[in-house]
Amino acid sequence: MSGNSFVVVANRLPVDLDSEGNWQPSPGGLVTALSPVLAEQQGCWVGWPGVPDQCPEPFHTDDGILLHPVQLTQQDYEEFYEGFSNATLWPLYHDLIVPPEFHRTWWETYREVNLKFAEAVSTVADQGATVWVQDYQLQLVPGILRQIRPDLTIGFFLHIPFPGAELFRQLPWREEIMRGLLGADLIGFHSIANAENFLALSRQIAGTAGSHIGQPDALEIAGTASIREVTATVQAPDGRTVGVAAFPISIDSRTVAAMAKQPTNLRELLGDKTLILGVDRLDYTKGILQRLMAFEELLASDAVQPQDVVFVQIATPSRERIEHYQKTRTEVEAAVGRINGLYGEVGAPVVHYIHRSIPKDVLMAYYAAADVMLVTPFKDGMNLVAKEYVACHEDDGALVLSEFAGAAVELTDAYLTNPYDIESIKRQLLTAINDVSTGAPEARSRMEHLHVQVMEHDVHLWASSFLRSLEAKR
Ligand code: GDG
User: Fold this and answer.
1) Engineering a disulfide at 277: which of 221, 319, 350, 370 sits with its beta carbon 3.0 to 4.6 angstroms away?
2) In Gene Ontology terms, what is one molecular function of this protein (predicted)?
């Protein structure tokens, strides 16, 4: 053990390989939020560096944070990451938008890799350290750590939705996952609805013959999952009380808002048109095809004119070897081609499609320039893109947002839409286009409220409220 009183463990280490083959820290929202805590508490981040069969030596960032890599083999990558994490758990937890695959070999590898992560944490964590486990890839880590390092205080946060009990119970290894999660002292979800799903499931599994999970206590039966305050608990198999609550994640709002003020020539490039923007990992949960179809129908019906609007869709490559991701890409690209074929002109496409990752500052320039942001997932734990757009707009622009994104709980002044109902997307998109192009006071007032909400509820609040609740469990 080597002087780490605070350890974050996540599937990915915040590093990237640069063009010269050196590992460089790559700060994202989570890193930004946790860096001050990690730096202050001599912290350590445990994770996979992102390339199979390669593993740099542990190294310190400029902030003094120790990055401790866990090596994954090619087989781990295929069965733990692409397989169980992203072809079993991801679709199951996103309400079966595509059917999850259940394979015993994938499960075995998921277990082995979770053990690998837990052992790595165990070697770096001080006696009595606080460990914060991140996300669905590592749901067994709290349970393993509880057994091998009972001195630790363990938090777990789920970044994706937690499904209803009827769906979760399809999982052949449901009890092992529950027992893994209940190794934590505190389990955090994005929303009260997700936390309630977990509590309802705990009640059901606790009542199953042969289950080792204790009946929930009186507080939990009262069903009081709440935001940023632990009022609900579940009894773990060893009799400990595990806190359950909602901690809606957010962004580094001030930094994003400041980046959006950088000068850009995007408007000159795109012309004097209403700019509609979509930004997503290319994932079937995000509803990219549906929003393109809604846009296409608006063009077809003459509700919007091709010379008045331009749609930019940034679709970052993601999980490209998984079948349903390939299918989604094919469908999206066919739709882009079809729409441009029907409504674009030489030198003036109506849809610009970018299928590569773009630098953060360029992304911020797109947010700042966009008149209407279209965020239409069928299901999303939170959706940071929606919050990033709002941080970039004090009182102009419009956000069209799916009711099924976790962000919709807080961003109630968005133009909310049901992505399963194409008429609903069309209606809200058209209203947003008309409101921003006529300078309607309604649009202005909506964005002012949204902006204040995101500026006042940033990622620092998320991290500090979770860690405060976790420390209270000591
Ligand atoms: C999961 C949950 C939850 C996107 N393209 C580029 C780029 N991005 C950045 C965005 C944003 C992030 O990626 C995407 O975050 P989201 O929250 O929108 O979606 P997921 O990746 O699915 O994240 C989600 C989140 O975890 C956190 O808990 O909100 O519900 O699914 O920050 O800006 N960044 C750059 N280039 C790109 O091309 N630099």
Assistant:
1) 370
2) alpha,alpha-trehalose-phosphate synthase (UDP-forming) activity
